[in-house]
Amino acid sequence: MSGVTFETQRAALADVVAIPVTPFAADGSVDLAAHRALLRRLLDGGIGTLTPNGNTGEFYALTPEERRLVAESTIEEAGDRAAVLVGVGHDLPTAIASARHARDLGAGMVMVHQPVHPYVSAAGWVDYHRAIAEAVPELGVVPYIRNDRLAGARLVELADHCPNVIGVKYAVPDAARFAAFARDAGLDRFVWVAGLAEPYAPSYFSAGATGFTSGLVNVAPAVSLNMIEALRSGDYPGAMKVWEQIRRFEELRAAHGSANNVTVVKEALAALGLCRRDVRPPSRPLPEDERAEVAAIAAGWSI
Questions:
Q1: Residue 121 backbone class (left: φ over 0; alpha: ψ -120 to 50; beta: rest)
Q2: Which residues span the membrane (predicted)?
Q3: Rounded-to-integer distance, Cα 170 and Cα 166, Å
């Protein structure tokens, strides 16, 4: 596959990378009709990159069959309107099967979730990602890095074996570490996506990121697009105005070790009448007394 340049996929990563929620029906199943409606809302709002089976999509709470359904629903709805980056992970055979399923559906990329194994060696991290990337050489592969001990040299080692490793979703909450990691790995070799969304986007863009992930985008696509437009034009004061606008919402999501990361997004969507607030354990819906604040923020974005 040496002739594949992945230019289209690289461009799609240098953008607002939306992580859609997975809405649930009253009986607890995935609500595919609501899912499609939420995806259409993102597409109509100008979002061009979607990540089904991301953490905001409650990846770890979905069954294998549900993860396949969510990927299928997203790729069908996106059509030629958006690039799709399918989240894969768990044990290696499962991750490889999910990546091949994404390829067979027509996705252009997979995002490899951080391994959840309690014992992750740096060399083993390379082996895990290499096995997945080699199974789908025609797809762009994007490691999701949350490990602050991983060195940039390991990413170089991986990409030297697998030229389809084209971007990185970097989610270590340390802008200086990100700047060093990106330069050790190759600032221009990979597309750097700020994996901690809007709160970290300005600092990570200043260090070389050109895209950021977003869960907030489910609620207010225009707000996320306003931020990336400011960042692309180097208007950091403008980006920080958006940052101030979304600060409280993101603080609520980050509280208690990000316990309510998805909960707050779904609460806002419920307040807007777009889907049920239900999340699956080990997440939990917001207590009644905290719902009004989220509803007020969502209403204030007036979308």
A1: beta
A2: none
A3: 13
